Amino acid sequence: MSCIEQMKYRLYLERTSFKEARDFIEKNSEEVYYVEPGYRIFKDYYIIGVPPVALGVRGNEILFTYVKPCHGTFVMGIDSQEEIARLREREARKIKKMMKDVQKGASTQKREPEASPVDFREIYKK
Amino acid sequence: MGCPEVPVQISIVIYLAHKLRKAGWDVTVAGTSAPIKLLKVADPESYYVKKTADLDWIIQEIVEKRLDFDACFAFMHSDAGMVYGATFSAISHAKHYAVVFGKNAEALAESIDYPTEKIVATATHNPGPLKSKIDRVVI
To answer: Which chain A positions have a beta carbon within 8 Å of B81's beta carbon?
Structure first.
């Protein structure tokens, strides 16, 4: 059992499908971040989910899905500035990397050779 | 293995583990505590299943890159099981199979949209249909 169940949490949805839980997070959060399954929060909880896994931020609270094999998916909320900061930093790094890749792609892209000017006399020769 | 409320699960897990082991594979059966307990009582001397592990521990080990497998058979009969299957498909390099069973097997199988090979049978008490589907994949 993860430490999450011993933490002070709020329960927003219980025993639902993962899809409904993700929709709830997307519709009820001020900020939504997408992580891959296995993303670790609160030291020892590795998020179980179908990618893309949505994590929401609402004030000081982080909203996330919690899957229990016999009971379905739950949407929980826990106050954590630390986890929110970690998510935002991760997103900033992701965007930075994306921008770098775009720039790299643009600079390595081969430029089309410019058409050499055609002498009109060459055209009329034909 | 997730929740053991559908009877065919343990039967097919033991059958598949034994079949894979006889074919030379090093098999680990991972599950939540209830199905692992059922398995250990059914196979007290570990004749069919040599290694068992906790499902969440396995996920942790794969994510932290301390462990991985060549093939993974994810047993599922509910949305939660399907979500665990998706997680394994995303975190592991293993060739992934979704073993879908239970009353709503067809609908559940349709909801799977991650990379996996689906083995589907509407089986609850009778393991026959699922066994024959497994036999077509694992020869």
So the answer is: 69
Its pTM stands at 0.88
DSSP secondary structure letters along B62-114: HHTTS---SEEEEEESSHHHHHHHHHHHHH--SEEEEEE-STTHHHHHHT--S
Residue B19 Cα to chain centre, angstroms: 13
Is A52 in the B-facing interface, judged by CB distances under 8 Å?
A: no
ipTM reported for the complex, 2 dp? 0.89
Taking the domain B8-137, which CATH number applies?
3.40.50.10160
- Which of A37, A68, A72 is closest, CB to CB, to B86? A37
Top residue of B79, B110, B111 to mutate, by most chain A CBs within 10 Å, is B79
Comparing alpha-carbon positions, the chain B residue that sits nearest to A73 is: B80
Per-residue pLDDT of chain B (139 residues; tens, 9 = 90+): 988 999 999 999 999 999 999 999 999 999 999 999 999 999 999 999 999 999 999 999 999 999 999 999 999 999 999 999 999 999 999 999 999 999 999 999 999 999 999 999 999 999 999 999 999 998 7
> Does residue B3 sit at the A interface (CB-CB below 8 Å)?
yes
Q: CA angle, B58 as apex, B53 and B61 as ends, to 5°?
A: 135
Q: Which sequence spans correspond to the domains of chain B?
A: 8-137
A29-57 pLDDT, tens digit per residue, is: 999 999 999 999 998 899 999 999 999 99
